[in-house]
Amino acid sequence: MVLWGPVLGTLLVVIVGYLCLPGLLRRRKPQEPPLDKGTMPWLGHAMAFRKNMFEFLKCMRDKHGDVFTVQLGGQYFTFVMDPLSFGPILKDAQRKLDFVQYAKELVLKVFGYQSVQGDHQMIHSASTKHLMGHGLEDLNEVMLDSLSLIILGPQGQSLGASCWREDCLFHFCYSILFKAGYLSLFRYTKGKEQDLLQAEELFTKFRKFDLLFPRFVYSLLGPLEWLEVGRLQRLFHKMLSVNDNEEKGNMSNWLCYMLQFLREQGVSPAMQDKFNFMMLWASQGNTGPTSFWALLFLLKHPEAMRAVREEATQVLGEVRLQANKSFVLKLSALQRTPVLDSVMEETLRLRASPTLLRVVHEDYTLKMASGQEYLFRHGDVVALFPYLSVHMDPDIHPEPTTFKYNRFLNPNGSRKVDFYKAGKKIHHYTMPWGAGVSICPGRFLALSEMKLFILLMVTHFDLELVDPDTPIPPVDPQRWGFGTTQPTHDVRFRYRLHPAE
């Protein structure tokens, strides 16, 4: 008779020993950064990190300085906090640091998409071809039509000119940008009414997934939540099916280009569906939250709102909505809005918090700006968190927690690009889109979408907070490190469409 209790107990001891032994045996070698394994075997500092990444890294920097290695769930991460030393990591002339493999593992886990050889380069190539220049101009036209459909309805002006409406600002911005972005890229064509219903249903499901996303990435979901994530993934794959979308023949050139590449590589339609889900999240997961913060900052800073509206009048003239018509806006004006550009850059500085990760393929020596050298161990992960090390550095950005709409403007109104740390000009003075090989390939489209939305809101609507004294909500600590942060709670506001001619 087999004694299963002792057998299982022995097996458990072996598994725990296998997981914990590398952490227990690891010691700091000469030239390596300070090592902080935490008190929990294997887990290390994982719980504190996941609870509030920003506060955890502040404590670690105060304790260890600008370079340190921490254990997080069996993996060792070396954080570099000196932005003057980012250059060698981002350029990596020796090719010892890899972003692609880490990204492949993440998208497989989150979206179910199995990457193929060369698809990372293909995404950047597609974005250069279709999300810049004439391709971006074409998408801006489609985006303007989509925003008109979402905001005004299928028949044109549907909001009473003198009727105040009340809503939650975060939900308002997120839902409008998501639905307009979805319709612009996937171009659903079952008729405007059906398009709106489809976009609304997709956003409702997307928001459920989005709320679970941070804990999903960290594998912290409960049993029922894991089931819910799986159900949502399957639903997205079905709703974004390449077979359904190709039958309509109206998908954006950007997506068509990428899907054609996947077909040529022999990728199955089912895997292409998962690719579509990944690209939907990548393109629409941050524009709505960023637009929320931008509008909220403008509403809380009347001088900034006045400056943006005055600039809009200068570049657009006096705009009026015609009865039963869509919005009309000279899209060339998007290139002549330095004040709005500064507002968006300041918003991203305050609320974008990406984490840049590189896997160490070979032992790698980093020479810091100070001249000191550190050895990074093969198999570890190098991490940059520019929100703390750049965006919130008072040497680079005085009063870093304060919103200053003209922070990125020179006295003559041109864009300010000269920022300094320790008396040295710094190249990476903000990094909301990442940098190097991991820079967001869709950043130009995302910025155009958000600017277009903000321009429509400030030129065609009266806007006000329900409670002018309501404080700006804090950031949800679970969202640190995942692109644009989100608020812990929403804010009520009122809006009223200007009367049509």
From TrEMBL:
Domain of life: Eukaryota
UniProt subcellular location: Endoplasmic reticulum membrane
Cofactors: heme
Residues that hold substrate according to the record: K109, N286
Chain ranges passing through the membrane: 6-25
Gene Ontology biological process terms, A to Z: lipid metabolic process
Residues annotated to bind heme: C440
Keyword Iron attached: yes
Coiled-coil annotated residue ranges, if any: none
One protein family per Pfam: p450
GO molecular function, one term: iron ion binding
Keywords: Endoplasmic reticulum, Heme, Iron, Lipid biosynthesis, Lipid metabolism, Membrane, Metal-binding, Transmembrane, Transmembrane helix
Gene3D superfamilies: Cytochrome P450
Bilayer topology annotation: Single-pass membrane protein
Extent of the signal sequence: none
A single GO cellular-component term on record: endoplasmic reticulum membrane
Main location: endoplasmic reticulum
Tagged with keyword Lipid biosynthesis: yes
Family of the protein in this entry: Belongs to the cytochrome P450 family.
Protein name, UniProt field: 7-alpha-hydroxycholest-4-en-3-one 12-alpha-hydroxylase
Native organism taxonomy: Eukaryota, Metazoa, Chordata, Craniata, Vertebrata
Gene it is expressed from: LOC103271067
